[in-house]
Design goal:
Chain B: Residues 101-171 form the J domain. The complex is a heterodimer of chains A (563) and B (444). Chain A has 563 residues and is an alpha+beta fold. Chain A contains 14 helices and 28 strands. Chain A folds into three domains: 12-186 and 390-415, ATPase, nucleotide binding domain (Nucleotidyltransferase, domain 5, 2-Layer Sandwich); 202-378, ATPase, substrate binding domain, subdomain 4 (Actin, Chain A, domain 4); 425-474 and 509-560, Substrate Binding Domain Of DNAk, Chain A, domain 1 (Sandwich), CATH 2.60.34.10. In chain A, strands 1, 2, 3, 4, 11 and 12 form a six-stranded mixed β-sheet that branches. Chain A has a five-stranded mixed β-sheet with strand order 15-14-13-18-19, with helices on both faces. Chain A has a four-stranded antiparallel β-sheet with strand order 22-21-24-25, with no helix packed on it. Classes of the chains: A alpha+beta (563), B mainly alpha (444).
Chain lengths: 563, 444
């Protein structure tokens, strides 16, 4: 076990590394087998393991077993403790622990008081100790699955984790005899999981990663440029997440129950509330798969059994507010990245709440046709959103496990990771039916040094061509629809009707040419041949341009000095 | 990184009259850049970090990576043949294969039981390429395929898991001799650790506990010795069997040989177990850690004992002190009672004497008053009557009243006054009903 303040390290050849996603509601663990990530099932057969610990007569239960104890043994059950790590008591939000062991203040940090021994007084467990116990169980499950003792892991963290929280997480993992190879940000882990698929190609694209979890929703805009990821903007939300969808269903079923049984509100009794919540969560999950879900609880309140069903449409109606909130959150973060929805090439939905088909359908409506929506209901080949983070972490673990800890530290040093990103795209002037236009070679917000190559058609008849390297950027062209004459005024008083009828503005993303950087000529092209143009931007923003006929010799090469 | 994008829109034709030196003309400079943090994640970041840390450009990095890859393959190929071949080994007769060192023949001496199947296969291939009899014949040497047969035999043994185990069992070159006293002095645990590391290859159970360092805890050390004293070894000694005749003619002889071999195996196995035990005894005897743990345990035990004794002593002392104090209290109480008694007695005596004294005063007073006689000597009757009356009064009053009366009479010398006091006293007694009128005659 590592001494306090000193990080645990393991020699590269002794390592057995996994990816670990430790969430507030659920955790999952993945390892790599033959370079592809596999999410590990624990001894209960769960791949999403509830981040819950429960103590009954000195026995420790985790995962689904512990979750079941929220009804009968709530005061000795620990939930939603990840976000308490490394925080002081004043700044935590104890809402989600209300129906379980309550957090307490202990020398500035957070602790829980539970009976974790068969006899005697309740003991006080610091949140770090709780996290350690949880991680130890996860690691044990992974070790059992792999058949080797797991020594190291890559852990995922939200983008807004402070240094103190990271330190606390590393310490908690080290106390569980686990070396932390690296902490990686959740949205980047999600992107990596998609990019590591064998069929994936590395393109320059802007990705929105919406990590919709149980207690929080985090959205990030990630610029992926030749496999290098830059986070352009993030948003965090604690009001529109999985528990709020549960809440909506709880209220719905509580009202249904009260219709049949006057004056009995199952929300007023802690045990009834816990039953209601557990069944609402499973109804929500059922509605993500089927269009109908049944809801049945024995002895929901005052010994009365309750049975009901709900269809998806009804659910989406009652959950309208939460779903709308998620939409606004995602639209907001695209805006704060200085982008338009048209600039987004891919939307990755991650986290358990992303199974909800309505959210994916909403994304489909918000983003243009060309945007890929990676969610189970819109893309059958998408990866299970709940598994993305663990997979990404496992892939990263397999990449860096052969490096010494010092090497990893040096490579993740800000001197290496902080680099200039070009604001404008670099491309060449090309001609089309609509006259001269801009064909991008390097996208905006690309980290330098960067190198890109394009093959561009020469004129049909061959001959000499001009390669004019220019900067460019996108802007959104809004085309007003043709006004429908005369009819408009009449419709104005009936606003609902006219809104439906009104055609939307046609919005397009178009490239706008900017400053010219250089001009070059490639002479004597054969008929129908292509030109290869390579643009290489150095770390100091100096540019080297090479152009030659594909398959030809020689070519042109020139430098543009750094600004 | 070298992937290319295809662009369909064609390039413009070169305008008339465009010319530049080497066909290239820089015009502007890149505008605008933002410092941002790229996420240290993914294979392409690794490449970026490598380039940034070694300050390489894209093409340099591509070239160096390609070179490294190529070099790796070569090194792999080199590693196995780098072992020099002993000329004596090359002279070996194939029929003596039982005594040959198969690992040495294949050039795997440094790997021995650790050699993987893949390594053995590759080593075999290399040796075959080098020592194939046809090659020797081609180079004009005599057709001597002895060593080639050695190679084949070695491969046959090492690629068969059962035969390989049998050979590994008797492969003494993989053993590490226990350190001499002199060697052990320098770094005892390290020297012995090597011995057990080598012995661990015979364990049926994987994850053999190792000797550990000076900082090993008691449970770790205990686990080590427990494990090794109960060592479950797969070591077998079939390899050293004498050849069993393969003919059907002499069955008895064959069976005799088989029995003999089985017994020999059993004996060797027992010897081997004894050897390991002896090794352990030797190692444990010099293990400073065991001594230290024993000392600590003794110290702890002694401390317990001392504590217990001290506690007993203290209890005894306490009991003694308690008893003493109790005794003292009892004695004091007794003494107090005694003095109280004596004081009472004294007081009583004092009261008695006071009464006597007062009575004397009373009698004296009547004497002073000349027994109330009017002039001259009082007659005997008179004296008697007066004294009788005094007696009567005295008998009727209690000691306090006698004292009060004595106080009144004390100092009085004049007969009338004395008589007055007496008369007053008699009157008081008569009023109180203690005396009857006429009881007292002389004092009225």
């Amino acid at each position: 076990m590592a001494a306090n303040g000193e990080r645990k390290t393991v020699a590269p050849d002794q390592r057995c590394a996994i990816g670990l996603s430790f969430g507030n509601s659920y955790s999952s663990v993945a390892c790599t087998i033959d370079d592809s990530a596999v999410v590990i099932a624990n001894e209960d057969g769960d791949r999403q393991i509830p981040s819950i610990l429960s103590y009954v007569e000195g026995e420790e239960y985790t995962g689904t077993q512990a979750k079941a104890f929220l009804v009968r043994n709530a005061e000795n059950t620990l939930v939603s403790f990840r976000d308490f790590l490394g925080k002081d008591f004043k700044s935590i939000d104890p809402t989600h622990c209300h129906a379980a062991a309550h957090p307490q203040e202990a020398s500035g940090s957070v602790a829980f008081s539970v009976k974790d021994k068969a006899e005697g007084e309740a003991s006080t467990l610091s949140v770090s100790e709780v996290a350690t116990r949880h991680i130890r169980r996860l690691v044990q499950s992974a070790s059992d699955y792999i058949g080797k003792q797991v020594t190291s892991a890559v852990l995922t963290i939200p983008t807004n984790f402070t240094d103190k929280q990271c330190e606390a997480l590393i310490q908690a993992a080290n106390n569980a005899d686990l070396e932390v190879l690296q902490l990686i940000k959740e949205p980047v882990a999600d992107v990596l999981a998609y990019d590591a698929r064998p069929e994936a190609t590395i393109e320059d694209k802007n990705i929105v990663v919406a990590d919709l979890g149980g207690t929080r929703s985090d959205v990030a805009v990630v610029a992926s440029r030749g496999g290098l990821y830059t986070i352009l903007a993030t948003a965090h939300d604690y009001e529109f997440a999985g528990v709020h969808l549960d809440k909506v269903l709880m209220d719905h079923f509580a009202k249904e129950f009260m219709k049949k049984n006057k004056d009995v509100d199952p929300r007023e009794n802690a045990r009834s509330l816990a039953k209601l919540k557990a069944e609402s969560e499973s109804a929500k999950k059922a509605l993500s798969i089927g269009t109908n879900a049944s809801f049945s609880v024995e002895s929901l309140a005052e010994g009365i059994d309750f049975q009901s069903t709900i269809n998806r449409l009804r659910y989406e109606t009652v959950a309208r507010n939460v779903l709308g909130g998620i939409n606004r959150l995602i639209e907001g973060v695209v805006k704060s990245a200085g982008l338009d929805v048209l600039d987004i090439d891919e939307v990755i939905l991650a986290g358990g709440t992303s199974h909800t088909p309505r959210i994916a359908a909403n994304m489909r409506n918000i983003f243009p046709e060309s945007t890929q929506i990676q969610a189970p209901s819109t893309n059958p080949s998408s990866i299970n959103p709940s598994e993305l983070q663990a997979r990404g972490a496992a892939l990263q673990a397999s990449l860096i496990q052969e490096y010494e800890a010092d090497d990893v530290d040096q490579s993740t040093h800000p001197a290496v990771t902080t680099v200039a990103h070009i604001t404008n795209a670099i491309g060449v002037v090309s001609v089309g039916n609509d006259g001269e236009g801009f064909s991008p070679i390097i996208a905006p917000e690309t980290a330098v040094p960067a190198r890109r190559t394009i093959h561009i058609n020469g004129p049909k008849e061959g001959g000499d061509v001009l390669i004019k390297v220019i900067e460019g950027n996108t802007h959104i062209k809004v085309t007003k629809p043709e006004p429908k004459a005369a009819k408009d005024e009449k419709d104005e008083d009936d606003s609902d009707f006219s809104e439906e009828e009104e055609e939307e503005d046609k919005r397009e993303k178009v490239w706008k040419s900017g400053e010219t950087l250089a001009e070059a000529a490639v002479r004597g092209l054969k008929k129908g041949s292509k030109v290869e143009v390579t643009v290489n931007v150095a770390a100091d923003l100096g540019v080297t341009i090479t152009a030659r006929e594909v398959g030809g010799k020689g070519g042109v090469r020139g430098n543009i000095a750094a600004p | 990184m070298a992937s290319t994008t295809k662009v369909e829109r064609p390039l413009p034709a070169l305008p008339e009259g465009w010319s530049a030196e080497k066909d290239f003309k820089p015009v502007g400079k890149t505008t605008g850049s933002t410092q941002r943090t790229i996420e240290p994640v993914g294979p392409h970041f690794l490449a970026h970090a490598r380039r940034a840390r070694h300050k390489r450009t894209f093409s340099e990095d591509d070239r160096i990576q390609a070179q490294e890859k190529a070099k790796n393959v070569e090194e792999n190929d080199d590693s196995d043949v780098s072992e020099p071949e002993d000329p004596m080994m090359l002279q070996r007769e194939a029929k003596d294969w039982k005594s040959q060192d198969h690992y040495q023949v294949l050039g795997l001496s440094k790997y021995r039981f650790k050699a993987t199947e893949d390594q053995i296969k590759r080593a075999h291939r290399k040796k075959v390429l080098k020592h194939h009899p046809d090659k020797k014949a081609a180079s004009g040497a005599t057709e001597d395929d002895n060593f080639f047969k050695c190679i084949q035999k070695a491969t046959e043994v090492l690629l068969d898991p059962v035969k390989r185990r049998q050979f590994d069992s008797v492969d003494e070159k993989a053993d590490v001799e226990p350190p001499s006293k002199k060697d052990a002095q320098k770094n005892y645990l390290k020297a012995w650790g090597k011995v057990f590391k080598a012995e661990a290859r015979f364990s049926k159970i994987p994850n053999v506990p190792m000797l550990g360092g000076d900082d090993a805890t008691k449970p770790e050390v205990d686990e080590f010795y427990n494990f090794w004293y109960n060592f479950d070894s797969w070591r077998t000694f079939e390899y050293l069997d004498e050849d069993v005749p393969d003919d059907n003619e002499n069955r008895d002889h064959k069976r005799h040989m088989e029995r003999k071999n089985a017994n020999a195996r059993k004996k060797k196995k027992a010897d081997d177990n004894a050897r390991l035990r002896k090794l352990l005894d030797e190692c444990a005897a010099g293990d400073e850690r065991i001594k230290r743990f024993r000392k600590e345990a003794n110290a702890a035990k002694n401390k317990k004992k001392a504590d217990k004794e001290a506690a007993e002593l203290k209890a005894k002392e306490d009991a003694r002190l308690k008893k003493e104090s109790e005794e003292k209290a009892a004695k004091e109480a007794e003494e107090k009672a005694k003095t109280d008694r004596e004081a009472n007695k004294k007081a009583k005596e004092a009261a008695k004497t006071a009464v006597k004294k007062n009575k004397r005063v009373l009698k004296g007073s009547v004497k002073d008053a000349n027994y109330f006689a009017s002039g001259g000597e009082a007659s005997a009757d008179q004296v008697n009557a007066v004294l009788n009356d005094v007696e009567t009064v005295q008998g009727k009053v209690d000691p306090e009243e006698i004292a009060a009366l004595a106080g009144k009479l004390n100092g009085l010398k004049v007969a009338d006054e004395i008589k007055g006091v007496w008369a007053e006293e008699v009157k008081r007694l008569v009023d109180a009903g203690k005396l009857k009128d006429g009881d007292i005659k002389t004092m009225v």
